[in-house]
Structures are given as C-alpha cells and as structure tokens.
Amino acid sequence: MGEARFLHACRRKRGNMETKVNWKEYAVIMAGMLIISAGIYYVMMPGGFVLGSLAGLVVVLVNFIPLSVSALTFILNALLLLIGFIFIGKEFGGKTIFASVMLSVYLWIFEKLTPNVKPLTGDVLIDMLCFLLLLCFGQALIFNVNASSGGLDIVGKILNKYLYIEIGKAVAFAGFVTAATSILVYDRKTLVVSLLGTYLSGIVLDNFIDGFHMRKRVCIISQNYQAVQEFIFKELNRGATLYSAYGGLNHEEKVEITTILEKNEYGKLLAYIHENDPTAFMTVSSVGEVIGKWNANRRIR
Questions:
Q1: Number of structural domains found in the chain
Q2: What is the residue range of 268's domain?
Q3: 80-126, pLDDT tens digit by residue?
C-alpha cells in the first residue's frame, strides 16, 4: 500500500508539473506571436516589402481585397488550419490554433491603437533586416515549445507529406512563392529584397533555434569526484556518467565525470568547482542536440 501511495503521489505531482509547463508554453507562444505581430505591423507593412510568409501574402492581398489586415489574416489562417486538419491530421493541436488566433488579435489591437504607422527607417533593406530578426526570434520561441505559428508552415508540411520534400525546403519553397507576389504591388527592387529576406530568414531562424537547444557537455577529473557527482545529482538534478581514466604523465588512475547541462546549470557547476576544487581539470564542449530521455529523466523534486 505504501508503494502504491508513493507512486500515486508522484503521478499527481508530475501531472501538476505538466499543467504548469503547459501554461508556461502558452505564455511563450503569446510572447512569440506578440514579437512577430509587432514586426509585421510596425516594420514590414510600412516598410513596403514582403517576406515569404502568410503575413507577406496578406500585405499584397489587402491591395486587392477590401478587408483589414487582421480580418484577412484570420480568414487565411482558418482556411489553412482546416486544410491542415484534413490533409495532415491531428498534429495541428490547440497550440497551433492558439498561435494563429493570437496573430489576428494582436494585429487588430495594433490597428486600433496606431492606425497610421510610418516606415521604421525609410531604407527597405535595413527595415527588412530588422523585421527578419524579430520574425525569426518570435518563431524560434514558438518552435522551442513544440508549437507552430500556422500559416505557411502548414503548406510546407503538406508538401512534405505528399511530395516527400524535406520540411525546411518545403517551407522555403512556399515562402519564395509568397515573396514573388510582391511584384504585383511593388517594384523589382522590393521583389529582390523580399526573395533575399526569405532566404536569410531560414538561416537566422536555424541559428536562433540552435541557440535555444544548445547544451554543455562537461568532462571533469577531480580528486573529489564523489562530491562533484553528488552536487550534479542533488543540486542540478542531473545525471552523470563515470569513466576510469589513466594518466599518461603520472600513471595515476582517476575518475572522469561526464554530464550534459543547460547553460545556467553549467554556470552553477563552474562556480561550485572554482569554490570547492579549483585544481579540478575540466573540458567543455557545446552540444547542438540531445536525443533520448534527457529531460524526462530529471527527478521529481
């Protein structure tokens, strides 16, 4: 009975943690969509350029369809979400719908608060680069919580499923087609800037996402390896792997500790080592991706 109660308590605690994480993820989506929406309304639209995105397509279509930007964005997003559910299935969950709705809500708020917005700098290239940074940072925040901002991501996934095109290339292809529509409204310079910006946005987005996912692989050789191992386990809530090491210079047998940490955890470990074992030997390398139950294996506090 005692073991059953303990397992039940662990499940309840894990469930509460997952609920908190979900709320946190939705907050991150709201922040990411706020950044993207602000970039669209205050930089891209008054700047007179089109980046390969649904928002870029909307900027072109509002010149031909008598609807507001927020209304047209909502309609197109709803149509794309419906197409996604039909042709792809359940992978488009509540977070994708929530992100799509928030884009329209933010644009509607901006339209009401600041109806007339002037270009940020007046230089199309500089404005495009500023928007590119805002767009990619917002997208990286959303992708980091396993969500999608909707729009052309849906088109890319459909192309990926039925034409077997890699997802990155599929989204880029959809973006290039959208950017090409800028010639219907703007000049050839804007077309070239839009196509260039679409290409650069893919590169910048990858860099932002890599930054969020970057981890530290730390290898430590210490005389007090047991204390270091205990600190990693109890204070950082991480696991570690121990290896036998044989010194080539002094022929001494030692123990090497290897662990994978997030950046803030690495900072705590480094401070502990400097204070408690300044003679410890450490090597540190960056890890771009961790596959497996690295996060799931963290103990419940």
A1: 2
A2: 214-287
A3: 888 877 877 665 567 777 887 888 899 899 989 998 888 888 888 88
